[in-house]
């Protein structure tokens, strides 16, 4: 069983026309999302979304991969380090 970790996903939507597609992907992975904040910038036709997530590397990787495949969307993530077994 893959280790569950917590982390953050930052999403920059460079074209608000893609917001529906981004939200569709987020809905597909809603079981991983423990928190969300979104800040639209209508003047620049952009938005930034921050997600707190909890899941395995595989699940979070699949999530960020799908988000990154949406045209005009930039994604970065950071996860807690794996537990050390001393």
Give the helix proportion (percent range).
25-40%
- CATH class (first level) name: Alpha Beta
Q: How many E strands?
A: 4
Strand content: 35-45%
Largest sheet: 4 strands, antiparallel
Output the helix-strand order.
Answer: EHEEHE
Number of helical elements: 2
Classify the fold: give the CATH topology: Alpha-Beta Plaits
- Please name the CATH architecture: 2-Layer Sandwich
The best one-word shape is elongated
CATH homolog superfamily: ACT-like. Chain A, domain 2
Q: Kindly, what is the distance between the CA atoms of the first and last residues, rounded to a whole number of angstroms?
A: 19 Å
**How large is the radius of gyration?**
14 Å
SSE-based structural type: alpha+beta
- Uncertain parts: none
Would you tell me the overall average pLDDT? 93
Q: Order of strands in the sheet with the most strands? A: 2-3-1-4
Count of the domains? 1
List keywords for this structure.
4 strands, Alpha-Beta Plaits, 86 residues
Write the layout of secondary structure elements.
Blueprint: E1 5-13, H1 19-28, E2 33-41, E3 46-55, H2 57-68, E4 73-79
Antiparallel strand pairs: 1-3, 1-4, 2-3
Characterise the protein shown here.
With 86 residues, the protein is an alpha+beta fold. The chain has one domain (5-79): 2-Layer Sandwich (Alpha-Beta Plaits). Helices cover 26% and strands 41% of the residues. The protein is built from two helices and four strands. A four-stranded antiparallel beta sheet has the order 2-3-1-4, covered by helices on one side. The longest helix is centred in the C-terminal third of the chain and has 12 residues, at 57-68. It is elongated and about 45 Å long.
């Amino acid at each position: 069983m893959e280790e569950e970790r917590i982390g953050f996903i930052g999403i920059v939507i460079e074209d608000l026309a893609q917001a529906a597609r981004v939200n569709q992907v987020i809905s597909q992975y809603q079981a991983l999302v423990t928190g969300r904040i979104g800040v639209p910038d209508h003047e620049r036709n952009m938005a930034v979304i921050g997600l707190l997530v909890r899941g395995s590397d595989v699940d979070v990787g699949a999530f960020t991969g799908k988000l990154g495949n949406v045209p005009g969307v930039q994604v970065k993530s950071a996860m807690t380090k794996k537990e050390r077994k001393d």
